[in-house]
Specification:
643 residues; alpha+beta; five-stranded mixed sheet; 56% helix; 8% strand; binds zinc ion
Length: 643
C-alpha cells in the first residue's frame, strides 16, 4: 500500500509475483461468475477492482523499471511475463460470464441507487464488452473473430510493406558538388551509409533523418524532386507490386465497415467515436469544416509569402512540392531564426522548476514540497502535493537522460486515487523526461522545447494527481475519452509562451537576467511561422480519415450489409482529391500516393480518430482563453479562481 520499494525489488521476484497475482485474479473471476446470486457493487465490482489493482500495480512497477532502468536482467524479466499478462487481459475482455455479471448489475434494482461515478464505470465496462462483439448472436461470433484477426494481420502487413518500401530506395551522389547546401552531419551520415555498402560517394535514403535534410537543404533541385517522388510513391502500385498497400487499404476499409454493421452501426466512423468525446461523425466533420474555413485564408497567405520569397530570393518561378521544405527553411532562417543555444542560457533547471511549481501553486492553490521515498536512480527526485496542509498526492521527477532510460518524455500512474469500501489511497505519478543533466558544477539548462515538454507532461500529471474522483476505474487519467486526453497537457504548454510567466521562470546562467523582450518576440514569430499551412494539412488528413471510414467503406460491399469486397483504391484517391479541393493550398502531383503510407489510420489505431489532435488542441485553447479573459483586467493570466 505504500510506495514501491525500488531498492528491494529484484528481477527474480517478477515471475512468481505476477503469476501469483494472475492466478489470484483468475480464481476470483471464477468464483464470482459461478455465484448464481444477483451481483452487487460491494460483492462483485469491489473485489474485482481490488484484485485488478494489485496486479496492475505490481506489473506497473515492472513496466516502469523496464522503461527507466532497462538493464538486461530487467528486460528479460519484463519480456518473460509480457505474453502471460497480455493473454490474461485478452481473456478478461472476452469473458462472457463476466459480461453477464456486469449486465445483471446494470439491470438490477441497485443500479439507479449507485452514484453517477459508479454508473459510469458500469457503462464503460458494458461498452467495452459490446465493442468486442460480446452481444452478437452465437452464429455471428466466429465471423467477428475472423474479421479481428484479419485486421491485425493487414495492419502488420501494411507497416511491413511501408518499411520495406522505405528501405528499398536510395539516391546516390557521386560528385561532392551535388551535395551543395546539405549540412555536414547529414553528409557524414550519407557517406557512412555508402561506406557500409562498400561504395564510393554518398547514399541518401527515404528514412526521415536522411530524407528530410535533402528536402530542406539540398540546392540540387533535381535531387530533391527524385527523392520527393520516391518518398511520395512508397508502398504503391508505382513501385514494387509486392509492396503495394493499395489492396490492403481496400480490404481494411471493407472489414471495418463489416464489423461496424455487425455491431449495429452505420459505419466504422460511428464505432470509433463510441468511446470518444465527439458524438457523431457529422459533428466532427462540422468541427473540421469550420476550422478549415478559418484556417485557409492564413494558409493561403503563408503560401503566397513562400512563393514570393522563392521567386525573388531563390529564383524559383513555380514553387513545386519538392521546393516547399527547401524554400521554407530559407525563409525561416531569413526572417525568424534565433539560436536555441542563446535561449537555453536563460532556462537553468532550478529556475524553470521554481517557475513551474509557482504556476501550479498560483493556479490550483496547492503546495509542492520535497519528500522522501525509495527510488530507482539517485538522480530521481520525489515530491508531495498538499492543499491547506492536507496530502493530495506524490510524484517522482526523473528529468535527465541515462543510458538505461527509454527515449522521449511521458507521465505514468504509479498509484491512482480511490476512497471506497476496500480502502483509500492518494495518487502517485511518474514524470519522466530525457533532458541533458548538469555539467561541471553548472546547473542543467533547457531549450524552450524542453520547457514545453516539461509543462506538457506536468499537465498530464496534474490531471492524474488533482483528481477528486473516488473510484479507481475513472479517477485521474483512467476512463478519459481518447480525444480529450491531451487537453490538460496542451493547456499547460500555453503558459510557456506568456511574457509575464517567462519573466519569472528565466535567469541567464551567468548574469541572472530574465529573458529579453527582443528574443521573446523572435520565439513567438518562429512559433507561428507557417502555422496556417500546417493547420490545413492536419485538417486534410483528419477529414480524409473520417470520410473514408464513413459511407466510403460500403462501396466495396456488393452483397448488402455483410459483404466485404475491397474498396477500390481509385475511390480512396477520389475522396482525398475532394478533401484537398476544399482545404489544401498546395495540391500534390497526381502520382502522389499519400494513403499508402498513412500508417496512423491503417496500422496505428487512429482509424477515424486522427481528428483527435485538433479536437484536443481546440479544447485546450478554449480552456486557456478562460484565463486570458479572466486576466485581461488584472495584468496576469495566473488567475486562481479560474484555475
Ligand atoms: Zn501528451
Amino acid at each position: 500500500s505504500g510506495m514501491p520499494r525500488f531498492a528491494d525489488i529484484k528481477p527474480e521476484h517478477v515471475e512468481p509475483a505476477i503469476r501469483g497475482l494472475i492466478d489470484e485474479n483468475r480464481a476470483l473471476i471464477e468464483r464470482l461468475t459461478a455465484d448464481p446470486a444477483t451481483p452487487t457493487w460491494d460483492d462483485f465490482v469491489s473485489p474485482m477492482d481490488e484484485a485488478g489493482e494489485r496486479l496492475g500495480r505490481a506489473w506497473g512497477v515492472v513496466g516502469h523499471l523496464h522503461s527507466v532502468f532497462d538493464v538486461p536482467a530487467w528486460r528479460e524479466a519484463y519480456n518473460a511475463m509480457l505474453p502471460d499478462i497480455s493473454r490474461f487481459f485478452a481473456e478478461v475482455g472476452q469473458n462472457l460470464a463476466l459480461f453477464e455479471k456486469y449486465k445483471a448489475l446494470h439491470d438490477s434494482a441497485e443500479f439507479p441507487t449507485l452514484s453517477p461515478v459508479r454508473q459510469r464505470i458500469l457503462e464503460h465496462a458494458l461498452r467495452d464488452f459490446r465493442l468486442s462483439g460480446a452481444e452478437l448472436p452465437d452464429a455471428q461470433k466466429p465471423r467477428f473473430q475472423e474479421i479481428q484477426e484479419e485486421q491485425s494481420q493487414l495492419a502488420a502487413k501494411f507497416s511491413e510493406n511501408l518499411l520495406d518500401a522505405t528501405n528499398a530506395h536510395a539516391e546516390w551522389v557521386s560528385d561532392e558538388a551535388g551535395l551543395a547546401g546539405i549540412p555536414e552531419d547529414a553528409r557524414a551520415a550519407a557517406r557512412a551509409a555508402a561506406e557500409a555498402d562498400a561504395k564510393p560517394g554518398w547514399k541518401f535514403t527515404l528514412q526521415m533523418p536522411s530524407y528530410l535534410p535533402v528536402l530542406q537543404y539540398a540546392d540540387d533541385r533535381e535531387l530533391r524532386a527524385r527523392m520527393y517522388r520516391a518518398y511520395a510513391t512508397r508502398a504503391s502500385e508505382l513501385g514494387n507490386p509486392e509492396l503495394d498497400n493499395g489492396p490492403l487499404i481496400g480490404r481494411i476499409l471493407a472489414l471495418r465497415h463489416e464489423e461496424a454493421r455487425m455491431l449495429g452501426y452505420r459505419n466504422f466512423a460511428e464505432v470509433s467515436l463510441v468511446p470518444k468525446m465527439a458524438d457523431t461523425p457529422e459533428q466532427v466533420l462540422g468541427f473540421l469544416h469550420d476550422l478549415a474555413a478559418k484556417a485557409k485564408p492564413f494558409a493561403e497567405k503563408d503560401l503566397q509569402e513562400l512563393q514570393a520569397f522563392a521567386k525573388t530570393e531563390l529564383g524559383i518561378d513555380t514553387l513545386e512540392p519538392w521546393d516547399a521544405a527547401y524554400a521554407s527553411e530559407k525563409l525561416r532562417q531569413a526572417r525568424y531564426a534565433y539560436s536555441d543555444q542563446e535561449v537555453k542560457q536563460y532556462f537553468p533547471e532550478p529556475k524553470v522548476l521554481d517557475g513551474l511549481f509557482g504556476v501550479i501553486r498560483t493556479l490550483y492553490g496547492v503546495d509542492i514540497l520535497p519528500d522522501e521515498a525509495p527510488k530507482w536512480d539517485p538522480d530521481v527526485r520525489f515530491f508531495r502535493i498538499e492543499k491547506d496542509g492536507e496530502l493530495v498526492g506524490h510524484f517522482y521527477l526523473d528529468l535527465h537522460a541515462r543510458s538505461t532510460k527509454r527515449g522521449g518524455a511521458w507521465m505514468d500512474s504509479a498509484r491512482s486515487r480511490h476512497r471506497n469500501t476496500w480502502g483509500s489511497d492518494t495518487p502517485v505519478a511518474y514524470l519522466v523526461c530525457n533532458f541533458p543533466g548538469p555539467v561541471a558544477g553548472k546547473p542543467a539548462t533547457f531549450t524552450h522545447d524542453d520547457v514545453l515538454t516539461l509543462f506538457h507532461e506536468c499537465g498530464h500529471g496534474l490531471h492524474h494527481l488533482l483528481t477528486q474522483v473516488d473510484e479507481l476505474a475513472v479517477s485521474g487519467i483512467h476512463g478519459v475519452e481518447w480525444d480529450a486526453v491531451e487537453l490538460p497537457s496542451q493547456f499547460m504548454e500555453n503558459f510557456c509562451w506568456e511574457w509575464d510567466v517567462l519573466q519569472g521562470m528565466t535567469a541567464h546562467v551567468d548574469t541572472g537576467a530574465p529573458l529579453p523582450r527582443a528574443l521573446y518576440d523572435k520565439m513567438i514569430a518562429a512559433k507561428n511561422f507557417q502555422s496556417g499551412m500546417q493547420t490545413v494539412r492536419q485538417l486534410e488528413f483528419s477529414m480524409f480519415d473520417l470520410l473514408l471510414h464513413g459511407e466510403v467503406g460500403a462501396v466495396g460491399n456488393t452483397s448488402g450489409d455483410t459483404g466485404s469486397a475491397p474498396v477500390p483504391i481509385e475511390r480512396v484517391m477520389a475522396v482525398l482529391d475532394e478533401v484537398r479541393k476544399e482545404v489544401a493550398v498546395m495540391i500534390p502531383p497526381t502520382w502522389h500516393r499519400f494513403p499508402h503510407s498513412f500508417a496512423h489510420i491503417f496500422a496505428g489505431g487512429y482509424g477515424a480518430g486522427y481528428y483527435s489532435y485538433k479536437w484536443a488542441e481546440v479544447l485546450s485553447a478554449d480552456a486557456f482563453e478562460a484565463f486570458e479573459e479572466a486576466g485581461a483586467g488584472r495584468g496576469s493570466l495566473l488567475d486562481p479562481e479560474t484555475g
